[in-house]
Design goal:
The protein is of the alpha/beta class. It has two domains: about 150 residues, Leucine Aminopeptidase, subunit E, domain 1, CATH 3.40.220; about 300 residues, Zn peptidases (Aminopeptidase, 3-Layer(aba) Sandwich), CATH 3.40.630.10. About 35% of the residues lie in helices and about 20% in strands. It is built from twelve helices and 18 strands. The strands form three sheets. Strands 7, 8, 9, 10, 11, 14, 15, 16 and 18 form a nine-stranded mixed sheet that branches. Helix 2 runs parallel beside helix 3, helix 3 runs antiparallel to helix 7 and helix 6 packs antiparallel against helix 8. The radius of gyration is 23 Å and the shape is elongated.
Length: about 450
């Protein structure tokens, strides 16, 4: 975590670069005759500056500092206050802190330390009045940024190491010394629960499935919010094996599960006054003589049967059992998060996750929270007519639609069949699984949607 130092005066030592904002498009580094460096961040016309541009500007500062091996820099906090944004100082401080931490992250766990060391920013001097709300904003922002980066560590880990057992162990370790109670259900317990979906998908792997359950109670007997995260620690596609480079990033197919774990831990650290449950079905989807097959019919925990038409549509199958399990908590809301479909990426590109719900107020709230958090989302329809597309021939429902069209929608409609009794919103985060070039983030997992989830838990 970056060390934040608050000061009323600009530091005079030459090893601290000074950051300023300018009404231009480019960002530059300038070196004065005395050797002191300045980072001039181009933000375009001030009148067009908005919250989204503040997110990118804060990341640019750290990205350019790292690129030029600048370990320390100072910012003049009042420079980041724009009246037309109608944001208070604490909000601005939080956004800066979150994105400073996110931009400073790189997944180096498997790299040899260079002789010159890593090019991480170590200290930031924040110049301005010593306002408690600014300090509070930086404190919470850094905690959120750290949780996002913890999620990125889990998601970036190679599939050979990130197994269902390892993910479960990491969840237990991360929840230690918090108010979170953890329970790891193994194959024996999963069989007792009659979770035919989780058992079916995991059959082809030597790695046995786990159901990770995290319970955080901090609001008496109030109904909990339940977060469900897809935990496919490696997705080969099963017998419908992925082709060409399709498997390259599939160690990240547990990104939804990682986001749920890190959000629960963050909520506990922030002492949010809610009851929250996290449920992560963790499996590997591998081809072998024991694998589930196209044409198999799985009986789910709910009692419904699923006709498997494609073994690469496995995430929705394990989530269906987890969603059924979630309802035993009589939740006030279920939020599921999954790298579910390439179709969501086809629809939206890589800049926003797709969201689905029957509740228009939830859709509106999550769009608002997406803008506030920087984890942007956009709704796609969940009309009843789409249920016709997943009607099974030999089972109750099929795990893919009748055509390739509208794949994100038919996947969401599949999940809806298992959660009709509870308020629910589905986040297909496949578009935001990895960072893209102008995110100004390191390559690999983007850590979505931890920022959105924590805002939802605070607001709802």
């Amino acid at each position: 975590m970056i060390k934040i130092i608050f000061s009323t005066k600009k530091p005079k030592t030459k090893d601290i670069a000074f950051v300023s904002l300018a009404e231009k498009e480019e960002t530059d580094i300038f070196v004065a005759p005395d050797g002191r460096k300045s980072i001039v961040v181009g933000i375009g016309k001030k009148k067009n500056f908005n919250r989204r541009k503040l997110v990118i500007a804060s990341r640019k500062i750290v990205a350019y500092a790292k690129k030029n091996n600048i370990k320390k820099f100072s910012i003049n906090f009042p420079d980041f206050i724009f009246g037309h944004l109608k944001m208070n100082k604490q909000e601005v401080a939080e956004i800066l802190a979150v994105n400073f931490e996110m931009a400073n992250f790189e997944f180096v766990q498997y790299k040899t330390l260079p002789k010159t060391g890593w090019k991480f920013v170590e200290e930031i001097f924040v110049i301005g009045d010593k306002n408690k709300s600014i300090k509070d904003g930086f404190t919470e922002g850094q905690m959120i940024g750290e949780a996002v980066n913890d999620c990125r560590v889990l998601a970036n880990m190679p599939g050979g190491d990130m197994t269902p057992s390892f993910l479960a162990a990491e969840a237990v370790k991360m929840a230690k010394n918090t108010k979170i109670k953890t329970a790891i259900l193994g194959e024996k317990e999963i069989k007792k629960l009659k979770m035919g979906g989780i058992l079916g998908v995991s059959r082809g792997s030597n790695e046995r499935p786990k159901l990770i359950v995290l319970e955080y109670k901090n609001n008496g007997d109030a109904k909990p919010i339940v977060l469900v995260g897809k935990g496919v620690t490696f997705d080969s596609g099963g017998l419908n094996i992925k082709v060409e480079n399709g498997s390259k990033d599939m160690h990240m197919d547990m990104s939804g599960g990682a986001a749920v774990i890190c959000t629960l831990v963050l909520a506990a650290k922030l002492k949010i006054k809610k009851n929250i449950v996290g449920i992560i079905p963790a499996v590997e989807n591998m081809p072998s003589g024991a694998s589930y097959r196209p044409g198999d019919i799985l009986r789910m925990m709910s009692g419904k049967t699923v006709e498997v038409l494609n073994t690469d549509a496995e995430g929705r199958i394990i989530l269906a059992d987890a969603l059924t399990y979630a309802q035993k908590y009589n939740p006030r809301l279920i939020i599921d998060v999954a790298t579910l479909t390439g179709a969501a990426m086809s629809a939206l590109g890589q800049r926003a996750s797709a969201i689905f719900s029957k509740d228009e107020k939830l859709i509106s709230l999550f769009r608002e929270l997406g803008e506030e958090s920087g984890d942007y989302v956009w709704p796609l329809p969940l009309w009843d007519e789409y249920s016709e597309d997943i009607k099974g021939v030999f089972g109750d429902i099929s795990n893919i639609g009748k055509s390739r069209d509208g794949g994100a929608i038919t996947a969401a409609m599949f999940l809806y069949q298992f959660v009709k009794k509870s308020p629910w919103i589905h986040i297909d985060m496949a578009p935001r699984m990895t960072s893209i070039e102008d995110d100004f983030l390191a390559k690999g997992a983007a850590g979505a949607p931890v920022r959105l989830l924590i805002k939802a838990l605070e607001r709802i």
